[in-house]
Amino acid sequence: MASFKLSLSLISAAALLAACGGSDPVNGALIDPPSTLATLTKAQLDGGPLLGLSGKAKCDVKVISLNYVTPGAKGESSNASGVLLLPSGADCTAAAPLVAYAKGTDVQKPRTLANPLDSETGLLAAMYAGQGYAVVATDYLGFAKSNYSYHPYLHADSEATSVIDSIRAARNAVSSQGGSLNGKVMLTGYSQGGHASMAAHREIEKNLSGEIKVAAGAHLAGPYNLSGSMKLTEAIAGYQFFVPYLVTAWQKIYGNLYSNVNDAFKAPYAAGIESLLPSPNLNYTTLVTSGKLPGMKGETPNQARDALFQSAFSSDILTNPNNATFLAAKKNDLLDWAPKSQVLLCGGSGDPTVPPAIHQTVMKAAFDAKGLTNVQSVDVDPTIQAVYAKVLAEDPIAYYGNYHGTYEPPFCHAAAKSLFDAVK
Question: What's the average model confidence in pLDDT over 154-171?
Fold first, then answer.
């Protein structure tokens, strides 16, 4: 144990030296000693809402915090935090396959998945870790313990490195926490995380296959065709959160989406928009109720778009093939590769936020055009409609408002686990 503590101290010192201009740290190196925050028992997992999908838990689950070295969007020295969910107990001593998970869009800067009470962490514990998989999930750059000044939202390259370095961090941490890994890695993520997990999958198979053996990737409800989404004349549900998030992030990365923030955004939203997301103290609801983003008066997505953006800025994205925002989106599309391992694409055809017709269907067609036979595409909409038929009939607004964030994820995770069970 003494030598382990010494090695962590040296790694922390290396990270600090790098921040001050010294030697570069190793990506995935642990900055802080991993800390067990809680152990979720099998009984606790079985008492949750996912029992019907996950099955009875086979393992207790240790919730372990991670803080690790990973580069920023331009290669700067930085860090990200996250969680390692480690199966434990007398029946769970075998070396485990590792699921690397990327979370959905988050607007709350302090939030970490290293929280046994977090609903997304609970889903991962029930669906995967309680069934014998080790899980590592990144908080991404700019969240929780990360010292990065912003979150590079829907930036494929930095999403990929955040996920890949979380895998390295998990490997660095697992033995000290009483576990072991069998070498097989499965990648998954939901919504933004589907984009991130696929970006990581692509990068690993192109450049890191000798280091990381990807057994399968399950990419769930992800926006893979960002340039296609830029040409939609109708705004998606949640437009007032997602589009300013990516425009301001890409402006920080590429520097050419607009010359002045007022050229892109209308008052009163232009003031403060570049530092608004993620927020240190506001959530989806309070971003609207505080007037920081439109939606307080029940605006439609189109009305929210028109309230936020200057009409010339929006129309140029739609009509100009050389528009800087459109070209930034093309840089972050994920249509250009051919996976070697098994792949699952999952979504619900009724999703109003990440429409599968724009993303999942186009992604599958791109894979099919390459003659791939290792990619399956699943539509969970029939199941969602069956389970939530009463809500759909009585309150369609509530139904579609809950579709992407609440109804869809568990069914896609169940499909992902079926794939992982076949290759673990």
Answer: 98
